[in-house]
């Protein structure tokens, strides 16, 4: 192995060992010399003068290889257990190179792991921020829900109060309706009683007024009454006589009669053996109107129709 490669790998090993400690595969003292010697090792002169001094020990006693360079760098690497009984320097160098390569790989893995951890930490921080934002939004939603619940509770309480008022009003109206129904029944009974009393009074009055009602009448006939009257129950003379006046005077009788324009006769029975007269002699006008009121010695007889 070239001296420059050994220096590079040893520097990489020192850097990798600061990130993570590899599994114990052997003993390698960090005898890398002073900073001055390290800087000299990267100059052309030091690189040309670097001659590793290989000192191999008996593998039967201790399976390790101790190599020291002229610039002071020393490697002491334990050989694998399956190494030959008399390992050569090339075998030792191969072991050292393989070990340093593994250290470089482990350092690269450690760097990648560190980068992955950094990315995971950033993602975790972003998730934490998002969770905090979601938590704040949830708190706002909870606060809004509390406000909505308080509003709904107040509205429900208002509805319950309105319902209680409505039920109370309904009870009052029902009480008024019951009172009105009782009052209606009382008024109906009173009205029926008064109607019956009114009908009874009406019938009584009609019975009392019946004799005084003005009945209709019809012309019976004309009779000669020079020798005797046709009707003998009542007689009255009036210069203003009319047929209707005589009818009222004789109400209650069956007949009434008019003669010579001024005389009124009443009676329930016509006289016997009366001689009927013609209509021509029975047209003397009444004194009170122009209606025919019998004639001289002739009586026009009318019959009541009750």
UniProtKB/TrEMBL annotation:
Biased composition (Polar residues): 34-46
Stretches the record annotates as Disordered: 24-55, 160-194
Comp. bias (Basic and acidic residues): 162-194
Leader sequence residues: 1-18
Domain WSC, chain residue ranges per copy: 216-306
Keywords: Signal
Organism domain of life: Eukaryota
Pfam families: WSC
Record's protein name: WSC domain-containing protein
Organism: Bipolaris oryzae ATCC 44560
């Amino acid at each position: 192995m070239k001296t420059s490669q050994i220096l590079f790998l040893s520097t990489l090993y020192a850097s990798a060992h600061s990130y993570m400690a590899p599994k114990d595969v052997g003993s390698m003292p960090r005898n890398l010399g002073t900073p001055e010697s390290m800087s000299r090792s990267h100059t052309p002169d030091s690189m040309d003068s670097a001659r590793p001094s290989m000192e191999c020990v008996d593998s039967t006693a201790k399976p390790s290889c101790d190599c020291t360079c002229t610039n002071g760098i020393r490697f002491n690497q334990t050989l694998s257990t399956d190494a030959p009984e008399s390992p050569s320097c090339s075998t030792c160098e191969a072991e050292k190179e393989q070990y340093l390569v593994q250290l470089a790989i482990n350092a690269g893995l450690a760097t990648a792991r560190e980068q992955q951890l950094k990315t995971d930490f950033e993602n975790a921080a972003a998730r934490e921020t998002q969770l905090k934002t979601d938590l704040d939004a949830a708190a706002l939603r909870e606060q809004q829900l509390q406000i909505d619940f308080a509003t709904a509770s107040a509205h429900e309480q208002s509805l319950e109060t309105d319902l209680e008022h409505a039920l109370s009003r309904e009870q009052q109206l029902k009480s008024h309706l019951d009172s009105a129904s009782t009052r209606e029944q009382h008024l109906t009974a009173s009205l029926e009683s008064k109607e019956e009393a009114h009908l009874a009074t009406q019938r009584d009055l009609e019975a009392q007024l019946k004799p005084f009602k003005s009945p209709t009448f019809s012309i019976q006939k004309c009779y000669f009454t020079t020798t005797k009257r046709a009707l003998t129950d009542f007689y009255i003379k009036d210069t203003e006589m009319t047929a209707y006046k005589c009818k009222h005077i004789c109400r209650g009788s069956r007949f009434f009669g008019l003669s010579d324009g001024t005389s009124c006769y009443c009676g329930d029975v016509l006289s016997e053996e009366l001689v009927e007269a013609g209509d021509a002699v029975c047209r003397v006008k009444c004194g009170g109107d122009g209606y025919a009121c019998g004639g001289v010695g002739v009586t026009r007889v009318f019959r009541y129709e009750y």
